[in-house]
DNA sequence: ATAGGGTTAG
């Protein structure tokens, strides 16, 4: 830290007359001690609904058992299930609720192993299957797209009269949501119809069905299904909840016209809108950049004496800010103050963002002061908006000033903060600072990633420091990062031009040991073909290209979010192999037909 | 987990 600070002063002498020096004092006023790095992690298995019910029972699964079985499964994964079952029996391990649950978590991608484990546990007399464990088997099977096994499990447990202790409405909820997620709309509907023919749970499940379809991007189908039911029973009036679900679906799909039609229909049918309805409308209109209309809805809501909260104020304040109407946004916040919930961190962050976007840093820091006076602490998101501004306008010095202030005040920058800072420093050619920030980022527990590594290496190339670039390249690979092909090419070209063929060969060796594509952005190929590596403005455009490319490579961690944003023309999502499994274990969508008993 | 609920885009 100290060396970083000194070198910073050497490279960028502090300028007390900087336009943005007022920022220097803002963040430090909420001085607090640096939060300790959490060392201990929870050792216990995640609590499940069933285990919390018997809180006093000693956890009944040992890590050794889990390891033994995991090991067994790994070595058996090509041998048919029957032999696996006997192998499991030979271990002599008694299945328990938690052990089985833990195994399911590990097996979510392998339906066959899942099935074996389930059968192994299920045949033991000491093992009793609870409804929630049963549903989690169903869930795991469906997640692995083995709907057929899920159905056969259900049919095994359903009595001839259709009743069952295990098969409940929740079971079908799981099934329906999973079908919807897999894009199998017809199967989702069939599952719903099957369930409702046996159970008296139609209303709740209908909501589940429509909600699942809407959330997975099938609003039209959801809406058509509702219409069909209305035609079947002309007296039927859909619940507010159903209207809300569909309204939300239309807005998510950015179909304003349809949303408005439904809203009209709702009024025609005298279905009284709820707070959720108003919230959905307001948020929806704001997202469609129709703040004006959103504010009309707000007035209507007031007339209806509905309680107004951050659910309606936040989108409007953000909408006004996005439209550059910052004074009105502030005015709206005044109204917000008098309501019970009052402004939240989201409100302040949104205002800070839009003041920064408008280039009004003074306004932004006033918001900052306001929020801290009200006891709301800024989050990394808050100050990232400032960094965004500094990075965009090449205000490296101001950016670094802010960075040091934050560190001194005990704040913890996040990954995005470091991305912005590194971008700023690399574009500005501040090599030694960039190297040190990179180091500090590591020390603070944020692992360097493809993006920061790429920026750093490309800077080295720009500075004709190809040997150092190679060194960083190797380091990155050792940390498990696969550099982009363009990065390799840049170093390779540089080394060859400098006559360092031996090093170039080593570089080539490292690269070919890595799985990689050989695609290059067009802009790069043009430049390289036209002129050998050198300095000049066009080199800079390469850097920009490379950064843009690595931005694209950022993987969305949560597939649900992709689904949420789907249909938005302003969002470009590459639905390719990069969208593979994440923590939740949801598989990539692949069109796939099921041969469930219903299809 | 699921009726809205948030985070940064040219």
Automatic annotation (TrEMBL):
Ranges of compositional bias, category Low complexity: 29-45
Instruction: From the UniProt entry, list the residue stretches annotated as the region Disordered.
Output: 29-55, 566-599
Q: Does the keyword Repeat apply?
A: yes
GO BP terms: namely: negative regulation of abscisic acid-activated signaling pathway; regulation of seed germination; seed germination
Instruction: Enumerate the GO terms in the molecular function aspect.
Output: mRNA binding
Q: Whereabouts are the PPR repeats?
A: 130-165, 239-273, 274-308, 344-378, 379-413, 414-448, 449-483
**Matching InterPro entries, A to Z?**
Mito_RNA-Proc/Resp (IPR051240), PPR_rpt (IPR002885), TPR-like_helical_dom_sf (IPR011990)
Family per record: Belongs to the PPR family. P subfamily.
NCBIfam families per the UniProt record, alphabetical: PPR
Q: What is the name of the protein in this document?
A: Pentacotripeptide-repeat region of PRORP domain-containing protein
Per the UniProt entry, what species is this protein from, by scientific name?
Answer: Brassica oleracea var. oleracea
């Amino acid at each position: 830290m100290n060396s970083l600070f000194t070198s910073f002063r050497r490279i960028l002498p502090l300028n007390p007359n900087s336009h943005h020096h007022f920022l220097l004092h803002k963040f430090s006023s909420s001085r607090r001690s640096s939060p300790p790095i959490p060392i201990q992690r929870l050792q216990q298995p995640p609590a499940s609904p069933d285990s919390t019910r018997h809180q006093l029972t000693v956890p009944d699964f040992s890590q050794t058992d889990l390891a033994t079985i995991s090991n067994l499964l790994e070595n058996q994964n090509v041998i048919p299930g029957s032999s696996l079952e006997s192998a499991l029996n030979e271990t002599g391990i008694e299945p328990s609720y938690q052990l089985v649950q833990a195994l399911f978590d590990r097996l979510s991608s392998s339906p066959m192993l899942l099935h074996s484990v389930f059968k192994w546990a299920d045949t033991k007399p000491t093992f009793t299957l609870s409804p929630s464990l049963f549903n989690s088997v169903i869930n795991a099977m469906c997640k692995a797209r083995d709907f057929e096994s899920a159905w056969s499990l259900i049919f095994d447990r359903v009595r001839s009269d259709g009743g069952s202790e295990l098969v409940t409405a929740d079971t079908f909820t799981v099934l329906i949501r999973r079908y919807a997620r897999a894009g199998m709309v017809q199967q989702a509907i069939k599952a719903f119809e099957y369930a409702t023919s046996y159970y008296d749970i139609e209303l709740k499940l209908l909501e589940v069905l429509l909600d699942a379809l809407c959330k997975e991007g099938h609003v039209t189908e959801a809406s058509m299904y509702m219409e069909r039911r209305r035609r079947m029973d002309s007296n039927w009036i859909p619940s507010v909840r159903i209207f809300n679900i569909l309204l939300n679906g239309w807005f998510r799909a950015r179909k304003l016209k349809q949303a408005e039609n439904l809203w009209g229909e709702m009024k025609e049918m005298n279905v009284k809108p709820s707070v959720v309805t108003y919230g959905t409308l307001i948020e929806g209109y704001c997202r469609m950049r129709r703040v004006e209309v959103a504010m009309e809805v707000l007035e209507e809501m007031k007339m209806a004496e509905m309680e107004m909260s951050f659910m309606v104020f936040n989108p409007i304040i953000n909408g006004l800010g996005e439209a550059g109407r910052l004074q009105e946004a502030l005015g709206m916040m005044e109204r917000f103050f008098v309501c019970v919930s009052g402004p939240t961190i989201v409100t302040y962050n949104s205002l800070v963002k839009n003041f920064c976007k408008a280039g009004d840093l003074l306004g932004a820091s006033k918001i900052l002061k306001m929020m801290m006076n009200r006891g709301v602490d800024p989050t990394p998101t808050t100050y990232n908006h400032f960094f965004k501004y500094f990075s965009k306008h090449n205000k490296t010095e101001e950016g670094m000033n802010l960075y040091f202030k934050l560190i001194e005040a005990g704040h913890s920058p996040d990954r995005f903060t470091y991305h912005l800072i590194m971008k700023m420093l690399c574009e500005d050619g501040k090599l030694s600072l960039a190297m040190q920030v990179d180091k500090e980022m590591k020390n603070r527990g944020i692992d360097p990633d493809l993006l920061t590594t790429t920026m750093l290496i490309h800077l080295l190339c720009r500075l004709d420091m190809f040997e150092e670039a190679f060194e960083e390249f190797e380091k990155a690979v050792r940390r498990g990062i696969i550099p982009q092909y363009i990065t390799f090419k840049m170093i390779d070209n540089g080394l060859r031009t400098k006559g360092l063929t031996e090093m170039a060969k080593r570089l080539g060796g490292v690269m070919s040991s890595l799985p990689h594509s050989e695609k290059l952005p067009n802009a790069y190929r043009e430049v390289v073909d036209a002129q050998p590596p050198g300095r000049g403005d066009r080199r800079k455009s390469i850097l920009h290209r490379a950064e843009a490319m690595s931005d694209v490579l950022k993987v969305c961690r949560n597939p649900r979010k992709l689904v949420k944003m789907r249909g938005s023309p302003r969002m470009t999502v590459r639905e390719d192999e990069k969208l593979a499994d994440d923590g939740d274990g949801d598989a990539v969508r692949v069109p796939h037909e099921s041969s469930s008993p219903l299809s």
